Amino acid sequence: xxxxxxxxxxxxxxxxxxxxxxxxxPQLGKLSENELRIAAKVLVLKIHVITGWVVPDNEMRxxxxxxxxxxxxxxxxxLNSEEVEFAFRKSGTVIKDWGKQMNLNLLDQVLLPYxxxxxxxxxxxxxxxxPPAQRIYSDEEILNERRRELELAYQAMRDGKxxxxxxxxxxxxxxxxxxxxxxxxxxxxxxxxxxxxxxxYQREK
Length: 205
Known about the structure:
The protein is mainly α and 205 residues long. Helices cover 60% and strands 0% of the residues.
């Protein structure tokens, strides 16, 4: 009999999109210096369109692009340009300070949370690629587990509670010689309770 396996829940739409974008383009850290500079320049303009953040003119724009490319390489080298765009479409429009000049702090406010979401999505993806092996329980292990459940139910009765009586409780009691197949399990429990039987099964030492 196979036991249940605790797989992660199905990916959300956001997680699926993150995983898709992760493979949509080369990682920024694998680009050449010139490719990274061009990617940063294009991303600055796209982020401006998405968020409305003001891009500085002339020399300051060049400095921003240069610093942004360095920031991408230092802190976000595992991302690609498609992911950066997606991150800003996803949450850049809700960051406060619209109309403020674009700067590295504002960029971090979008990319850092996205990086956290990416880690979780990647972990979920990895678990689904390599799920833990299912354990096969022996008949004796299954029987012992049912004995444990039966004992717990009996102790609950002793405390004045009304536990769920599973169908297989009768089978276990019959197999262990407590009752015959024709006997009523409820009569057995009443007998044990009236005679102050403390336990049906001894604790394992």
